[in-house]
Amino acid sequence: MSDTASDSVSDTASDNDISRRRLLGAVGAAGATGLVLGAAGGAAAHAATSGDAPTALTTVGSATVAFHGEHQSGITTPLQARGHLIAFDLAPGAGHREAAALMRRWSTLAAELMAGRAAGDGDTGVALDAGPSSLTITFGFGRTFFDRTGLVTQRPAELDPLPAFSSDQLDDRRSNGDLWVQIGSDDALVAFHALRAIQKAAGEAARVRWQMNGFNRSPGATGRPMTARNLMGQVDGTRNPKPSEADFDRRIFVPSGTKYAWLAGGSYAVVRRIRMLLDDWEKLSPTKQERVIGRRKSDGAPLTGGTETTELALDRTGPDGKLVIPDNAHARISAPEQNGGAAMLRRPFSFHDGIDPDGTPDAGLLFVCWQADPLRGFVPVQRKLDRGDALSPFIRHEASGLFAVPGGPKKGEYVGQRLLES
What we know:
It is built from 13 helices and eleven strands. A hairpin with a 5-residue loop joins strand 9 and strand 10. By secondary structure, the protein is an alpha+beta fold. Strands 7, 8, 9, 10 and 11 form a five-stranded antiparallel sheet that branches. A four-stranded antiparallel sheet has the order 4-5-3-6. It has a two-stranded antiparallel sheet with strand order 1-2. The relative contact order is 0.17. The protein is globular and about 70 Å long. It has helices at about 5-10, 20-25, 25-30, 60, 95-115, 145-150, 190-200, 250, 280, 285-295, 330-335, 380-390, 415-420, and strands spanning about 45, 55, 80-90, 135-140, 180-185, 205-215, 265-275, 345, 350-355, 360-370, 395-405. It is found in: Cell envelope. Keywords: Heme, Iron, Lyase, Metal-binding, Oxidoreductase, Peroxidase, Signal. Involved in the recovery of exogenous heme iron. Extracts iron from heme while preserving the protoporphyrin ring intact. It catalyses: heme b + 2 H(+) = protoporphyrin IX + Fe(2+).
């Protein structure tokens, strides 16, 4: 293997492959057309399958996210239009050595794909004419990974199983796993291409345990940037911590100097498949829906007034003497100030997996939240919600997982190297 994660795959790509590599080589030419280069989307170009001169990509297709860095991508990356979550178990007989080789392969592959290049000689061609489209590939380790690899002494206590909650109806077959991969992109074909490539690269080392597909609103679909909506029609994610806040890193990322050096700069992901009982929810009037949530449906503002970002006036009462934001409203119960400052970065995808025989939609939220410590982030908030959230009758937690996500790799490193080669 070469010194950098990107070299080994690119060196194996065949010369006559109509590679996505060409799209990045055309950046200079596309820039001359006046397209804007920047973090939100640049002037990359794509290769036409006919072999003609490449044409300019849209800003959506040309946007790239760095693979290397202090943190893995897909955590603070803005919500993407398409997502895939997939968990693997190491194959029988596979252990430490096989896991290390797998993480090398996956990291090499992820670096190539996120840069907009092909997945080597076996590339399926699904994304030939697309740019990177903000592709991110994020890797995490489940509790059982440490048993399988003989690294139990390196397993943090924060990976202890989550407590049971009354709204849980968990399917073990769709929960947990030795390894977890989150894929996100603003293009569905680019996301699927990465999913297929990751699955194939697992080879004989790991087997798929479960896989879930999600989506969000596409970039540019609204007239102005705004917080996403979920399938209940509610603005979802208003109180998310922001990277600009002074204590953001402390809340979301594991600090350097931690007992487990391999996890410095990393985070913990709680993953929940939450079924929304939409038929029941949609029987409520908009006014009753707003009282369940505690926010206006139109713009996400608190029922006590203002805009989406206005603080909740939790003590305000109406002419009838009752709290304007009910005492069991979701926004009240989940507010950080109601939970000792507990906070987590929510970064979900919606899902719709078809219609049940009785006509009920199998739809809801692939809830993914990030925190430096799940025992201080997800767990206390969910415990409080479990005791009296007005939203609880309209949702059902059907799958669950908790994963330790290492910090981002440096140039020449693979994800998890500091653990697997410690």
